[in-house]
UniProtKB/TrEMBL annotation:
Keywords: ATP-binding, Nucleotide-binding, Transport. PROSITE patterns: ABC_TRANSPORTER_1 (PS00211), ABC_TRANSPORTER_2 (PS50893). It comes from Streptomyces polyasparticus. Residues 5-234 form the ABC transporter domain. One of its GO terms (molecular function) is ATP binding. Residues 370-390 are annotated as: Disordered. This is ABC transporter ATP-binding protein. InterPro entries: AAA+_ATPase, ABC_transporter-like_ATP-bd, ABC_transporter-like_CS, ABC_transpr_MalK-like, ABC_transpr_MalK/UgpC-like, Mo/tungstate-bd_C_term_dom, P-loop_NTPase, Transp-assoc_OB_typ2. It comes from the Bacteria.
């Protein structure tokens, strides 16, 4: 039987510091929920509170609809697997898997249950081995076997794959998805690896600094991130985030100023774009996923695409695709918490400050583009990101392209931006385009 897990306004405080703040979240019976976030955001603490290994400072936990905050860990019918495979070194696989069963019922022979579990995990040929005689991946399978052998109603996994190499991680990830689906048990899985989270979870709950940011199915998380942090944490390469200013004159087309270039919003305006009008003159963060920008001249623009230009700074050939790093003369918006935990994707080796040829080339691009769209004056420069956090790294935009595109470092390329895939976040980081499902009240 699997049970629902419900956290109601749950907080955890260590001394004066909150590790988890007012998290409310329900995991439905049989659901696979992934807790995702950077190191130190409180994921493991949430898991440990569900398991009863940490007391809840404020709020309430319910298991299967029953208050459980004060229930002893061993009475919660929960199994947990940690990053480090907690196996008894002197016990064989068979004995390790049988151990929790023997604890519950010492008088019975549990061989059938052990065999069923071993078959499910494809470790039947390891039953007589000791942990020291197995690889990391095999040991982690045995640890899972031990956790699931007594068929818990809730299964908690804390970064179970993080100490394994990439190939094994990919393989075991698929195995975990299969096993959990087969068991049909309510599962909470902690990771800081967004690809792992997106591929495993029925829903992914993103945390930052102890606070739950959004809990949604993976597709929704990617397509409709609630805020700039979620947008940036999910997706590889990371979404391009640029400082911008909304330009919405009463008598002309609306646009987003990106420093030296401007994205003109296509007419007639979509409802989402119309709603940006109230941000006139305000600094915003413009988000463009790498697949929302393509190389192409203005003459090839499809409806809904806007033309800009950029200088190629770095090209990553990945075989099936090419990532092109460009300098468009915009400023990258920096999202605190992300920069240290997840480095900008494959931006290549650290480079010195902008090279002279880039300045010359940018001057050429900008003199063309700016003449089309009167550059914003200093008063219009966005202040969304404090100057001390602004990055001086060259290259502000990454686009994903087919391997057939051959671009030259230092070359100027025309770009087409799909404005149907445009994201805009306000100065607090909340998504305002596409408009949020629940619009905030207007303050007059
Ligand atoms: N026993 C403790 N005493 C004091 N602070 C703690 C304790 N345990 C955790 N913390 C703090 O609580 C915060 C959340 O920790 P937690 O382990 O839940 O984060 P996490 O998201 O799981 O990180 P990681 O991915 O690195 O494991 C961190 O700032 C951590 O330093």
């Amino acid at each position: 039987m699997s049970r629902a897990i419900e956290l109601r306004e749950v907080s955890k405080r260590y001394g004066d510091t909150y590790a988890v703040r007012r998290v409310s979240l329900t995991v439905e019976p049989g659901e696979f929920l992934v807790l995702l976030g950077p190191s130190g955001c409180g994921k493991s603490t949430v898991l440990r509170m569900i398991a009863g290994l940490e007391d809840i400072t404020e709020g309430e936990l319910l298991l299967g609809g029953e208050p459980a905050s004060d229930v002893l860990p061993r009475e919660r019918d929960i199994a947990m697997v940690f990053q480090s495979f907690a196996l008894y070194p002197s016990m064989t696989t068979r004995e390790n898997i049988a151990f929790p069963l023997r604890l519950r019922d010492p008088s019975t022979d549990h061989d059938d249950e052990v065999r069923t579990t071993a078959r499910m995990l494809a470790i039947e040929d390891l039953l007589e081995r000791l942990p020291a005689q197995m690889s990391g991946g095999e040991r982690q399978r045995v640890a899972m076997g031990r956790a699931i052998s007594r068929r818990p109603s809730v299964f908690l996994l804390d970064e179970p794959l993080s100490s394994l190499d990439a190939k094994l991680r990919g393989h075991l990830r698929a195995e975990i998805a299969r096993i959990v689906a087969e068991l049909g048990v309510t599962t909470v899985y902690v990771t800081h690896d967004q690809a792992e989270a997106m591929s495993l979870g029925d829903r992914v709950a993103v945390m930052r600094d102890g606070v739950l940011q959004q809990a949604s199915p993976p597709r929704e998380l990617y397509a409709r991130p609630a805020n700039v942090f979620v947008a940036a944490f999910v997706g590889t390469p990371r979404i391009n985030l640029l400082e911008g200013v909304v330009h919405a004159p009463l008598d002309g087309p609306m646009a987003l100023d990106l420093g030296r270039q401007r994205l003109c919003l296509p007419q007639p305006l979509t409802t989402d774009h119309q709603l940006l009008r109230i941000q006139q003159g305000r600094p915003v963060i413009v988000g463009l996923r790498p697949e929302a920008v393509r190389i192409g001249p203005p003459s090839q623009a499809r409806p809904g695409e806007a033309a800009i230009g950029g200088i190629v700074e770095h090209v990553e050939y990945l075989g099936h695709e090419v990532l092109v790093h460009l300098n468009t003369g915009s400023r990258r918006a920096v999202v605190p918490d992300l920069e240290s935990s997840r480095p900008a994707v494959d931006a290549g080796p650290a480079r010195p400050a902008r090279r002279p040829w880039i300045d010359r080339a940018l001057h050429r691009v900008n003199s063309v583009v700016v003449s089309r769209s009167s550059a914003p004056g200093p008063a219009q420069q966005p202040a969304a990101v404090p100057p001390e956090r602004r990055t001086t790294a060259a290259g502000d935009l990454v686009l994903r392209s087919g391997p057939e595109h051959r671009v030259r470092v230092g070359g100027h390329v025309p770009l087409l931006v799909d404005l149907e895939r445009l994201y805009v976040f306000d100065h607090t980081g909340l998504r305002i385009c596409p408009a949020p499902d629940r619009m905030p009240a207007l303050h007059t």
